[in-house]
């Protein structure tokens, strides 16, 4: 079989479905002890298994952002993020 023709590779890496569409998502990244959120990431989302993945261009773009250290002055806005400890939950559960 000659399948060297380049197709747009919109195939799910997880289940192989071609029911993949582009959706703009928001994702969180850890930069050392700092949590940053990136919005409007063009992600490929599988309609069959809901797997979310990025194409090479997007991965490179995210790597560049990470390489810049997510400079605060470039942030569009900031979020207050509540932080929970799973240990607190376990402690609260004690007793009948
Ligand atoms: Zn899939």
TrEMBL record:
UniProt superkingdom: Bacteria
Name of the protein: YgiT-type zinc finger domain-containing protein
Organism: Albidiferax ferrireducens (strain ATCC BAA-621 / DSM 15236 / T118)
């Amino acid at each position: 079989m000659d399948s060297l023709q380049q197709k747009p590779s919109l195939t799910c890496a997880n289940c192989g479905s071609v029911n993949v569409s582009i959706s703009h998502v928001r994702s969180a990244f850890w930069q050392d002890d700092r949590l940053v959120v990136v919005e409007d990431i063009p992600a490929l989302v599988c309609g069959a298994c809901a797997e979310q993945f990025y194409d090479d261009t997007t991965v490179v773009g995210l790597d560049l952002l990470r390489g810049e250290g997510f400079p605060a002055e470039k942030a569009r806005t900031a979020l207050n993020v509540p932080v929970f400890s799973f240990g607190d939950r376990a402690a609260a559960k004690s007793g009948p």
